[in-house]
Write a structure and sequence with these properties.
The structure is a homodimer of 381-residue chains. Chain A is of the alpha+beta class and 381 residues long. Chain A contains ten helices and eight strands. The first copy, chain A, has a domain of 77 residues: Arylsulfatase, C-terminal domain (2-Layer Sandwich). In chain A, strand 1 and strand 2 form a beta hairpin. The longest helix of chain A has 31 residues. At the A-B interface, helix 10 of A face helix 10 of B.
Chain lengths: 381, 381
């Protein structure tokens, strides 16, 4: 199958072929750069009498070359997403049907470009100098997989080479401003549930598909690295009267746990091909010992600009290992002593045992994560 | 999907649902125990006026409790397979079509029960005492994954506990006799190609899906262990005028290489989801350095009687590692000093570096072997 139908970096054409994911209806958009009449965000702008082209561009912020003024909130892609969701919620209530529903809202922000609505950015300007600088120790890239230093020193996209401290702080401010804007939009969505009488019987999950390095280790955005700043995401579950309000849980969990959790709360069985486990016992627990011994992530050549080596990461509560498969390179961190992941212990003879144990743990996780989903074995061969 | 439609060990019902593997026609049989009118072997016996039931049983050989007299060659499942193949070859020649064809012949032998045709077994009886005993060093199972010793000491199926040396030698003799019988059948197949004028333009590949431990380490048959006796199989390619006759190649190869090799000799492109690489450059070589650095195998819970832990094996020319995923157990062998794999170095501090390197090699191989086949990346996300 051809999942992609466009030449590399031809941003002006749509490139995602829909796969059948079980949704009966969807609205499609991507970042404002994708100019096509199929883009439902542009249709929404058009219906509001706005010009899509006008909002496809970032305007210089005047504060840093790396921070822009993006579309105002009224015209923002995040607002478009939430407006569509609210429309769904209200129509459902108006029809008065008892049919259960599920939907997924996927605003593009927070994400580079670092281009929050201007007023959201400006709230941070008085305190920019108080923003902590990214994780960085002089010379740290000398002890990490060589590609990280090469990429950093190339100064190409996502390298922070030559950035001033103020640039680095302003990018964080812009990212936080995008989070604030998204927070306001999520608030509108919860209000719509409340207004339509559906808040009490709706499980809301707030999460993300990735974070952002925001300058840690001389880099912005995410892959092909597997730093915690890119991998750790928020996870908030809200279900009044069912889930305990305000409870914080610090156990290790994975995004793979979400589908089994949803099925569990719906009283539906988990598909045997699902790798995760329902969080319901963790949420309603007590439970003995750690909920998960480790969490797993993988990077499989998702971008033709990246080197072709696949990478795997396993972390326990205390340690983390990243293997660059097919090479002798990798990363090993003591997250207690070095939560910023600046001191790579991969080649440290004193940590050889830990490296070996975590490598076997990685192999054990990935063999289950990557294998074809199989039905339960009942036969003898 | 339900791939199996029978209760565990209900041998009297068919249990394999056909999957679409691209073949336009097939004849199905399994070992003689599967009594069903769908069994094409039984249909073949019936057409010859023989009683299927009569040949479903092994008769005591009188030499060892573990060795039987199986069906005579005239009624043998291997002969049935080859007869069907010869029928195909001759019909193809009779039709005189230039259409290319491919088929796969899969006799059940050599395989337990150890039940060759009586006359094939008897050739070995005068030399039984010269047959080498299986690989075994006293106490070796104390340093291997615990399941191996438990299973051995249980005396259950496939354990050689309590076998005499003569039992062990006779089982090898019976296995070799089955190989001899199969060799004769393959000869008939090559003669049919010759007779019908198709031998010169037919690539014949002789191989197997597994070997047999034949008593090595106190066990017969194969899984869930990953010893070389179970994993190493013959591989003979025959293509007169195209492949050099009589050449022996000792490089490491995998069964995954066969499909790309066939496609290569047919002038067809390799599917990107195929893990193997065409052997054509190796066959037509010379090439620099080792053809493959390592070969990979996996065991993923193929039998509900086995413990549920998955296992992975990687071997280089000199060494071999088996990880029991999700446990601290495993195996590490120096194949130069210990080709019989009796001395497990897994917990030997002097081999910690080797263990760590091979474990990373295993992870690198399995992550590519087990991942969903993906089309080549052309897009940027």
């Amino acid at each position: 199958p051809e999942w992609f139908n466009h030449p590399k970096k031809d941003w002006d054409r749509p490139f995602e072929q829909r796969v059948d994911d079980g949704y009966t209806y969807f609205e499609w958009s991507h970042s404002p750069g994708h100019r096509t009449p199929n883009n439902a965000y542009f249709q929404w702008l058009h219906q509001k009498g706005m010009k899509p082209e006008q909002w496809a561009e970032n305007r210089p912020s005047g504060h840093s070359d790396h921070v822009y003024h993006g579309p105002d909130s009224e015209r923002h892609q995040a607002r478009f997403c939430v407006d569509k969701a609210i429309e769904f919620i209200e129509l459902h209530a108006a029809f008065g049907t008892a049919e259960p529903w599920v939907f997924s809202v996927n605003p593009f922000d927070p994400h580079p470009s670092y281009n929050p609505p201007r007023d959201y950015l400006e709230r941070y300007l008085p305190m920019v100098d108080e923003i902590p600088l990214p994780a960085w120790e002089e010379g740290e890239l000398d002890r990490k997989p060589a590609y990280q230093k090469e990429r950093y020193e190339s100064g190409k996209a996502h390298s922070t080479l030559g950035w001033s401290d103020r640039d680095k702080r302003l990018v964080k401010a812009a990212y936080w401003a995008m989070c604030d804007h998204l927070d306001a939009q999520v608030g509108r969505l919860l209000e719509a549930l409340e207004r339509s009488g559906q808040r009490e019987n709706t499980l809301v999950i707030f999460t993300s598909d990735h974070g952002d390095l925001l300058g840690d280790h001389g880099k912005t955005v995410k892959g092909p690295y597997l730093y915690e700043g890119a991998l750790r995401v928020p996870l908030v579950l809200h279900f009044p009267g069912v889930l305990p309000a305000g409870r914080r849980i610090s156990d290790l969990v994975e995004l793979t746990d979400l589908a089994p959790t949803l099925l569990d709360y719906c009283g539906l069985p988990k598909d045997p091909s699902m790798q995760g486990r329902s969080l319901r016992p963790l949420i309603e627990g007590p439970h003995d010992g750690p909920w998960r011994e480790d969490v797993y992530a993988e990077y499989y050549n998702s971008n033709p600009d990246h080197p072709p080596l696949w990478r795997g990461r396993v972390r326990t509560r205390a340690h983390k290992l990243v293997a660059v498969h097919g090479s002798d390179e990798g990363e090993l961190y003591d997250l207690g002593a070095d939560p910023g992941e600046c001191r790579n212990l991969w080649d440290d003879p004193a940590h050889r045992d830990l490296k070996e144990r975590l490598c076997r743990r990685l192999a054990a996780r990935q063999v289950h994560a990557a294998a074809d989903p199989l039905p339960p074995r009942v036969g003898v061969f």
